Amino acid sequence: MGLEADILARTPVLYWPLDDATGPAAVDASGNSHHGVYGGPFMTHQYGVEPGTYAAQFSIGGKVTCTGMPQPAAAPFTVVWYASINSNGLGGLQPILLHRDTAQPRGWQWSWNSNGTMQLSTYSAGGAFASSTSFNQNNWVQWWHSYALVYNGASAFTLWCDAAVKGSYTVTGGMSTILSTDPFGVQAGGPAVFAHIAYYDKVLGSADITAIGMYRYDWPFGPMVNAVWPNPPAGTGTAYLSPSDPIVIEQQANTADIRRAVIRDYSAPPPGPIT
Question: Coil, strand, or helix at residue 21?
Answer without folding.
Answer: coil
